[in-house]
UniProtKB/TrEMBL annotation:
It comes from Streptomyces bauhiniae. Pfam families: Cyt_bd_oxida_I. This is Cytochrome ubiquinol oxidase subunit I. Keywords: Cell membrane, Electron transport, Heme, Iron, Membrane, Metal-binding, Transmembrane, Transmembrane helix, Transport. The lineage of its organism: Bacteria, Bacillati, Actinomycetota, Actinomycetes, Kitasatosporales. One of its GO terms (biological process) is aerobic electron transport chain. The chain crosses the membrane at residues 33-55, 75-98, 110-131, 143-167, 198-220, 232-251, 334-360, 372-394, 420-443. Residues 453-479 are annotated as: Disordered. Belongs to the cytochrome ubiquinol oxidase subunit 1 family. It is found in: Cell membrane.
Length: 479
């Protein structure tokens, strides 16, 4: 009989000690978070695009802009409802799947979620007012009723980022005998990682929402629908994303250096670095197998230069991480590939944004007929979502094996009760139903709007109202 002395192999010993519920809990959390994160950009940024269109419609007397604003507001309302469902499931999962986290650090970790709840209710109230206000409120009063929607969505996203960033760099608490005895809310919320991660997520939201919306109108123009409505819808959304993208790249580069300083194990996984050293190359692609990097493209010194602005910068490798808290080889490979995908997709989108600037500057009149550019722009929607998901994989998997870095390991936080696989199956069914229903509703709205046509569509209030005449328009008629 073959026997293995687990004491000689700490990684095997750690794997053997993992609770049975850890794998299904991780899979369920990964799935629900991955699903929900796609909806977040539309809750945060689509409302801002809606207000930009609304403002243009009122200031410029542009009825197509008002039609865009109204339609985008309805799409935002649908996605807000779906996001409320998926976000609620995530909230319950934190307590049900990870009682060790909430039981020990709930007093601190729960504070940002309490703030998020306040922003959620504020957003829900003003979403209802804005949607109901079409046809019923004076134009500028209606516009201003939408501003709290955008602000509350940004505040809610910031609160969630505060909780997540606290897990990466916890602070603002005093521990005694393994329990939290004092919480300093300001330090918990505005922890050392908060601001960079907040701006990173906020910019990502505008990039994803902008490119996804722009891709819809790019496809429409490829298919021959090239009126002012399509062009305006494309320009508002695409320009918003294109402006946010270079700022996002700068913020992301700054975050990478923050990770280098505060989370060396995550940085080592990002760089696929098994051993500590200087003059570290940047590895593109590749995998870690038996402690060695294989099949990657090595660019000399670049990792050290990016981390500390000089080739002699010393980067801590995975060998410097104690074996019992070292990420597994699979986790390292996932983090490295997710980071490469995030950076690679960002560069692709930046190239399309630069292409847009060139087309707009040199051949503005060909924008609506340049099928090659429109094809590339239409793909940016999918690419932006892939980039967003990859970024969250880097954040969440890169923190492993910690759920709160330096304080609580994931395996120590997971529930020890029950069988989680049936629960995971139930969540899959629920999300499949919700996702299918949302897609069906959005496609139904799209078909109805296409039947109406895009030009001379009845608007809730026309240009005369923006000039202050006091007249209101409903169903295309002045009343």
């Amino acid at each position: 009989m073959l026997t293995v002395d687990l004491a000689r192999y700490p990684l095997l010993l750690a794997a053997a000690a993992e609770p049975d519920q850890l794998l299904p809990a991780r899979e369920q959390m990964a799935f629900t978070l991955g699903f929900h994160i796609i909806l977040v950009p539309f809750g945060v940024a689509l409302t801002s695009l809606m207000l930009i269109a609304n403002y243009r419609g009122l200031r410029k007397g542009d009825e197509a802009a008002l039609v865009l604003a109204r339609r985008w507001s309805k799409v935002a309302a649908v996605l807000f409802a779906v996001g409320a469902i998926t976000g609620t499931v995530l909230s319950f999962e934190l307590g049900l799947l990870w009682p060790g986290l909430m039981g020990t650090y709930g007093a601190a970790f729960g504070f940002p979620f309490a703030i998020e709840g306040l922003f959620f209710f504020l957003e829900a109230i003003f979403v209802a007012i804005y949607i109901y206000g079409w046809d019923r409120m004076r134009p500028w009063a209606h516009f201003w009723s939408g501003v709290p929607v955008a602000l509350a969505s940004i505040g809610g996203a910031g609160a969630v980022i505060a909780a997540n960033s606290w897990m990466n760099q916890p602070g603002g608490i005093t521990m005694r005998n393994g329990k939290v005895v004092d919480v300093r809310p300001g330090e918990v919320f505005f922890n050392n990682a908060f601001w960079l991660q907040f701006w990173h997520m906020l910019l990502a939201a505008y990039i994803v929402a902008g490119f996804v919306v722009a891709s819809v109108y790019a496809v429409g123009m490829i298919r021959g629908r090239r009126g002012h409505y399509q062009k305006l819808g494309f320009l508002i959304s695409f320009i918003t994303a294109a402006v946010a993208l270079p700022v996002q790249i700068f913020v992301g580069d700054t975050i990478a250096r923050q990770v280098f300083d505060s989370e060396p194990a995550k940085f080592a996984a990002i760089e696929l670095l098994p051993t500590t050293g200087t003059h570290v190359p940047e590895t593109l692609g590749g995998v870690l197998i038996d402690g060695e990097v294989r099949y990657g493209i090595s660019v000399p010194w670049v990792a050290s230069i990016l981390a500390g602005f000089k080739p002699s910068t010393r980067i801590q490798g995975l060998d410097a991480v104690p074996a019992d808290i070292r990420p597994t080889t699979a986790q390292v490979n996932i983090v490295h590939w997710a980071f490469d995908i995030m950076v690679g997709t960002s560069m692709l989108m930046l190239a399309v944004a630069v292409w847009f600037v060139w087309v707009w500057w040199k051949r503005r009149n060909t924008l609506q007929t340049n099928r090659w550019f429109l094809g590339a722009a239409s793909l940016c929607g999918i690419v932006s979502i892939l980039s967003l998901e990859s970024g969250w994989v880097v954040t969440e998997v890169g923190r492993q094996p910690w759920i709160v870095v330096g304080l609580l390991r994931t395996r120590d936080a997971v529930t020890t009760q029950g069988n989680l696989w049936p629960t995971f199956a139930g969540v899959l069914v629920l999300y499949l139903a919700v996702g299918t229903g949302a897609i069906w509703v959005l496609l139904s709205m799209k078909r109805r709007w296409q039947k109406q046509g895009d030009e001379n569509v009845p608007v809730p209030y026309g240009p005369d109202d923006a000039a202050g005449s006091g007249r209101e328009r409903s169903e295309g008629k002045v009343r």
